[in-house]
Amino acid sequence: MRRLIYALPLLFALPTPAHADELSDAVAAEMPELMELYRYLHEHPELSFQEVETAARLAAEARALGFDVTTEVGGTGVVAVLENGPGPVLLMRADMDGLPVEEATGLPFASQVTATTDEGIESHVMHACGHDTHMTAWVGTIRQLAARRGEWSGTLVAILQPAEERGAGARMMLEDGLYERFPKPDYAIAFHDSASAPAGTIGVVNGWAMANVDSVDVTVHGVGGHGAYPHTTRDPIVLGARIVGALQTLVSREVDPQHAAVVTVGAFNAGTKHNIISDEARLLLTVRSYTDEVREQLLSGIERISRAEGMVAGLPEDQWPTVTRRDEYTPAVFNTPALTTQLVTAFTARFGEERVLEGEPVMGGEDFSRYWRADRDNIQSVLFWVGGVPQGRWDAAQRGEISLPSLHSARWAPDAEAVISTATEALVTAALEILGNEMTGEE
């Protein structure tokens, strides 16, 4: 399996399966209808926990295929269950929510939708993270598996999750009884489109794949006053600046260099006027890690450094900086080795070595991780990537002629047909690999 890096050699033509067969032909036959669905979903995005119309439309697709469908799980989530004899339980997830982004792709079916965020802000909405491709491939996969009941045995739990972008949807579905009200999975799979790999390639990471994501607020208290007389104040901006500098030592001097860690101060807000020293400053941090141990090391270190700097500034203890861990914590994604190895072998057999790449762990977050963490001793789980960069743009980027937009960019427009067809075929392959062994008695 080749390594997935940004500067891949230019070895890719239009993606084709390693061999033509009945599955790839069946997926190809579905693509015109699936692309019509994709364009509809792209043109009608909904924000996190507002995915009402999206959920209703896709729930109807599952019902028509004979799934037992439950809606409004964890808010707007959908759970579609297809029982097909004895065997393992496989959970397959797609996420539904769009982002508050004004689309700039120039697509003829670009989103013109506006909506009001939970903060009361009127915003444009766009599927800037490719969740529309995820949902479309989800539909393509359940169609194929419903038509192939003679090829597998077990239970498929196909879920549509709300609010992945807020890191809350998986938690809400689990808290609403996902593992108590419905068959509890032995395996969990999902994919995400990639803005840094050629369209139609598959990237798989063995082990830690995506990061713990924590949002932390540091409120720095001070004693305000006139900017001309700083000696009469305790300047929270100076104190905040010292905290920002000291926080850098957490990664550079306290975390083992072999462990990944990020502490980024994304916002530093204070003051209203040139000659006024404010009473308060506020720092907004994003904190990234893989292991639970490094996560706690970073979070406790932020609290220790912030409070210690307050003491050094001469503030009484009750005015030392206040550190708040926000609720939007997203745990790290871990691809369990046994299932990862099994699926890489299956993907390589189907797509060929040139299309199956060894992915690199990234510091982005994905709450798919919660489905494994809810019972990590008994669930095997894999989240894989499907490249979405159109081949012509990929080639131009390798020549240095253009820069590529990232996920969440207003300009991100994947080669949707390549993503959907590849992901559908890969998800069906994974499902048959997991559930099809029951038919043969293999383990």
UniProtKB/TrEMBL annotation:
Residues 214-309 form the Peptidase M20 dimerisation domain. Its cofactor is Mn(2+). The keyword Signal applies. GO terms for biological process: diaminopimelate biosynthetic process. Keywords: Hydrolase, Manganese, Metal-binding, Signal. Residues 1-20 form the signal peptide. This is Amidohydrolase. The Mn(2+) ion enhances activity. InterPro entries: Amidohydrolase, Bact_exopeptidase_dim_dom, Peptidase_M20, Peptidase_M20_dimer. Pfam families: M20_dimer, Peptidase_M20.
